[in-house]
Amino acid sequence: MIVEQIYTGCLAQGAYYIESEGEVAIIDPLREVHSYHNKAIKNNSKVKYIFETHFHADFVSGHVELSQKTGAQIVYGPNANPSFDCIIAQDGQVFEIGKIKIKVLHTPGHTMESSCYLLIDENGKENCIFTGDTLFIGDVGRPDLAQKSNLTIHDLAGFLYTSLHEKIMILPNDLIVYPAHGAGSACGKNMSKETWDTLGHQKQVNYALQPQSKEQFIDAVTNGLTPPPYYFPKNVMLNKTGAKSVENIKISVQALSADAFEMAVNELGAVMIDTRDAHVFKDGFVPNSINIGIKGDFAPWIGTLLTDIEQPILFVADVENIDEVITRLSRVGYDNIIGYLNGGIAAWLKSGKEIDTIESISAETFAIKYVDSDGKLIVKDVRKESEYRAEHVEEAECVSLAFLSNNMAAFSKDEQNYIYCAGGYRSMIASSILKSRGFDNVVDITGGFAAIAKTDVPRSNFVCQSKLKV
Predict the structure, then answer these.
(1) What is the pTM for the complete model shown?
(2) Are 192 and 181 in contact (CB under 8 A)?
(3) Dihedral sign, Cα of residue 234, residue 248, residue 268, residue 329
């Protein structure tokens, strides 16, 4: 028996490859399916089933394409209503893969079709459980994504409580828990960086599995939820209907000269994404482009900041990252990719076109300026509120990157805006957005709060009342 977790860090997503006696099951595959198919071929095995734990909101699944390539049947739990042929399993239904069995446990709560898959090994032992977005390591799935006119967030949280107590917590403590996501995913609020654990340990440390009433559980899981990213509903629809292949998307993306790139911006109203590292981007970029580095949480931030999933996209990338950029955009359903700047920023410079820059200073330089000003600088912390609450620069205001566009009034048009995040990735995104909106007085602090904390800049965990919009 083979059980392999295939973890994709930029999405904090876990897919699973299961094999026994030449038969394979895939659980929650990503949109680019060749890796699963090729692994089965290399092992002289055949993909028999594709199990989906639910209709994913945070990424586009490759279930339909993988089924077409392999002939495997797609399996969903009860209540699923896709537009393609598949097996809608019954609660408790068992599927055989070689000498092992996979049992369907219907666990509504995150969504109403959410199901977990219990693996029973060759010896009849309950070996592991694939929990999708029902149970994470350190958390449970958010219950606010499948609200309908007759179902509230509290109704769904109540279903989740029942699912956990009646279907999962009764299972053996040595059972291995394999979730669909880890820390960094927007599908939960308190996920661990660990990608698997035993059920017994989760019963000890997971706040949602502690002894508590249903009412206490509902309060715990619904408190502190931030609005989900804009692209979630569109991804659900793509997963219900099936998406076109990533390879077909790549074929349509054009390599554009500097003139053609500029023309596409002006005629199509395309958003420009510069995917280079922040420390390179700041020294020269196409005016009005937004820096979201490919070497970071690229896809989640695309989905959070680009509110229109159909908006045309142009991008700048180092040549070795072009395919990766297209892949990561398509993973979250941003398929309207017009093209990229052929030759990168060097081609733009060679054409003689205007570039823009962003001022960036070290934490040490910021500390000197802060002391000289008696702490009266305008300082903005673009981390999450929970990070800000833990500790922040004294007098800094929290303007989380996820809600930046709603809070432009928080920034000064007249004085310098000093911007930091945890390490520099998010602050450069924020700085580039502000620059594109006409704020020419933004200063990025290199290294973020991690670097600032090593200086003498006063820090605080006192939180002022805020009127910012979310």
Answers:
(1) 0.90
(2) no
(3) positive
